[in-house]
Each structure stands twice: as C-alpha cells, then as structure tokens.
C-alpha cells in the first residue's frame, strides 16, 4: 500500500467516526398520565464505543433504555437502528442485533445455566469464551448460583448472540467490586471487538474506567455529556456536582 499523500486536488479518503448503530433524536418517554420522564434526548451509539449513562435515582436512565430497546413506546421523537427510524418491538430489535440486559437479569431461576443460554439462542461455546468460570455450572439450576454468576449468565447469553449493540441496566447491582470489574471488563472487551454499548451504572468509578463517553441525565434531560477520559482525569467535573461520589 502506498503511503504517499494524495496528489493535489485528489480528495483524501474520509476517516470519520463509524456510523451509529443506534440513535435517538428528541426522544421522550414516560408512563401513563404522568407526562414524560425522559425529555428530548439525543444520543448516538457507535460500533466499538462504550457510553455510560449516569444520573441520580429517578433521573430516567432505565426509562431511556426501555425506550431505546422497544420495550416502551416513546411519547415523542425517534429511535433509529442503522440509520433507519424504527418502531419495532423489543423481540424484533433483538433479532436485528440489539441485546438488552435489564436490571432484573431475566435469568430463569428454575432452569439450568445451559437451558438459560439455549433459551436466549446463545451458543454455549461462545458464552463460555466470555465467562469460562460458568463451565462447571452448566447443569446447575440458575437459582442456585451466586448473584454474580447469574449476572454472568445474563451477560454471556446477551453477548453470545454477537449483537451489534448492547443496552445494560445496572449490571453491577449488589455485586462485589471484583465481580463488577470482571463483568464490565467483558463488556469492554466486546466493545473492542466492535460492539456498541450503552451502560447504566450505579458504580460510577467502575463505569468511567471502561467508558469512552459519558452522558449525565437529570430530571430526564441531558445535564452533561463528554469524553470519559476528561472525567477520569478530573472526576470533580461530575462527581459531587452531578453525581454522588461512588
Ligand atoms: N412503571 C412505571 N410507572 C410509573 N412511573 C415509573 C415507572 N417506572 C419508573 N417510573 C418513574 O419514572 C421516573 C424515572 O425512573 P427511571 O427508573 O427511569 O429512573 P432511573 O434514573 O433509572 O432511576 P434508578 O437509578 O432509581 O433506577 C421516576 O420518577 C420513576 O418513579
């Protein structure tokens, strides 16, 4: 391949950021008569990047994920998948390559780990590549696993389908710091392989450690957004001002 610069007058090839997999424009969503709890949200999720959505309790983080996933119909604005506006329900978006790990993990406690993976149409071999520590538990009922192992099942099941985008709500809820690192490390590795990720996290510092970009929601609106590196270098930018120290 030539390394010479292009001749004068010949346009250079464009090497801008990859096109977003999932976008929102002016997205509003809420529940019943109460009016929208998320208002006018703009967001782009690109292949290979981890965006973390932070904000105090009740800010609208889960509602945002629900609206982006198709589990909740927006009351305004649009969601686009690969550049096309979509109103498809969750199961259709899942088939198109959107993975959603909700806060309750959606692991079926009465089924074995192997059955849980199969139910999510996940290839067991691929799931074990992500979390080899599940290998000895494949035939155990999920209800007998620790919270961290259950979360690994939920995440392995989502990632083993090789989705294009992942929405994950509070993966680390109630887990020990080492497990949080393990789970978020797996998410980072998947993003390095091209996955687009939107993470809602209570563990602000852990989320910042793996994120490329940060969006802070307050009262359903974007209060701050910017590169995670800037916040890692100067946590006071957000911590204390917008977020509790965690
Ligand atoms: N099913 C529901 N019906 C009615 N109101 C709801 C429902 N779910 C959430 N809300 C309300 O919507 C607002 C935003 O909630 P949401 O769960 O999106 O916030 P959050 O930022 O994820 O908060 P948390 O960190 O506490 O999970 C809150 O005021 C909440 O009480």
Automatic annotation (TrEMBL):
Keyword Magnesium: no
PROSITE patterns named in the record: ABC_TRANSPORTER_1 (PS00211), ABC_TRANSPORTER_2 (PS50893)
Keywords in alphabetical order: Amino-acid transport, ATP-binding, Nucleotide-binding, Transport
Keyword ATP-binding appears in the UniProt entry: yes
Region (Disordered): 1-22
Every ABC transporter domain range: 22-244
Domain of life, source organism: Bacteria
GO BP of this protein: L-amino acid transport
One GO molecular-function entry: ATP binding
Alphabetical list of InterPro entries matching this protein: AAA+_ATPase, ABC_transporter-like_ATP-bd, ABC_transporter-like_CS, BCAA_Transport_ATP-bd_LivF, P-loop_NTPase
Chain intervals with Pro residues compositional bias: 1-11
Family label: Belongs to the ABC transporter superfamily.
Protein name per the record: ABC transporter ATP-binding protein
Organism, as annotated: Parafrankia soli
